[in-house]
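User: Please fill in residues for this 277-position structure.
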């Protein structure tokens, strides 16, 4: 119960001869927690199928435990082994069970002594649950379900907006034949993917119409602003022309006033030079 106090603990070895089903049940409650970071669990003791059932239940929520090593136990049969295998394969063949199963556990090693009452085939399956990372494990499980139910995948509840990713996944895993089988079946409602408008487009149509009306209003306002700006620009040009005309008039008036004075000054200057002579 103190596992949460050691977040850096990744390997736990409990080789205790007196480890019973009750003790293994308490351990299972500890590894259910989100703060449990154990990736490898090694156990020995006097537990049996009941203890394995507790560990299997814990694996429905634990997403970090990769390996379980059972060195010694008592009365461990196929019941306990199947419980561990079922938690990674799913309770049944439904889509919900497939996606909610454990994708992290990779192997369960049970020694010959501990598994003497278990079938060899089950022991072999437990040793090689998966050899890839959890993400690829989930992908493999998903593809197995899709491949087995390609004619009717209505249980997936696929949303149209996710259709491109789904079709790409089917095409990559199963090729053109699987893609054709999926689209050919009426159970998969192919019209949802090719209807015009699509449900997603139909959902967005009111918003698009509202945006279009707002754009029209903005366009009218913009045109009005442009007309006002053009009017102001024209007034500025007229004012500038008036200022230039006024400047020219003042210059002309100044020339009219100064020219006679200048000529009179020139005449006086001429007579003064005559008198000097």
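Assistant: Residues filled in for all 277 positions:
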């Amino acid at each position: 119960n103190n596992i949460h106090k050691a977040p850096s603990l990744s390997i736990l070895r409990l080789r205790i001869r007196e480890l019973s089903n009750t003790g293994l049940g308490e351990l299972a409650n500890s590894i259910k927690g989100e703060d449990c970071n154990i990736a490898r669990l090694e156990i020995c003791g006097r537990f049996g199928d009941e203890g394995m059932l507790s560990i299997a239940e814990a694996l429905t929520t634990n997403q970090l435990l990769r390996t379980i090593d059972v060195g010694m136990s008592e009365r461990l049969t196929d019941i306990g082994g199947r419980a561990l295998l079922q938690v990674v394969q799913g309770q049944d063949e439904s889509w919900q069970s497939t996606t909610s199963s454990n994708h992290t556990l990779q192997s369960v090693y049970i020694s010959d002594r501990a598994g003497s009452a278990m079938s060899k085939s089950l022991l072999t399956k437990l040793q090689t649950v998966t050899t890839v990372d959890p993400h690829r494990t989930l992908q493999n499980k998903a593809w197995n379900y899709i491949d087995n139910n390609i004619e009717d995948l209505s249980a997936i509840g696929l949303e149209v907006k996710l259709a491109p990713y789904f079709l790409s996944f089917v095409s990559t895993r199963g090729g053109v034949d699987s893609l054709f089988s999926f689209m050919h079946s009426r159970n998969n409602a192919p019209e949802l993917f090719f209807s015009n408008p699509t449900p997603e487009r139909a959902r967005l149509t009111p918003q698009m119409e509202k945006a279009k009306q707002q754009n029209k209003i903005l366009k009218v306002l913009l045109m009005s602003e442009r007309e006002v700006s053009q009017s102001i620009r024209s007034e500025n040009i007229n004012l500038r022309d008036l200022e230039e005309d006024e400047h020219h008039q003042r210059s002309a008036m100044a020339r009219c006033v100064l020219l006679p004075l200048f000529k009179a000054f020139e005449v006086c200057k001429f007579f003064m030079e005559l008198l000097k002579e």
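For context: The longest helix spans residues 199-276.
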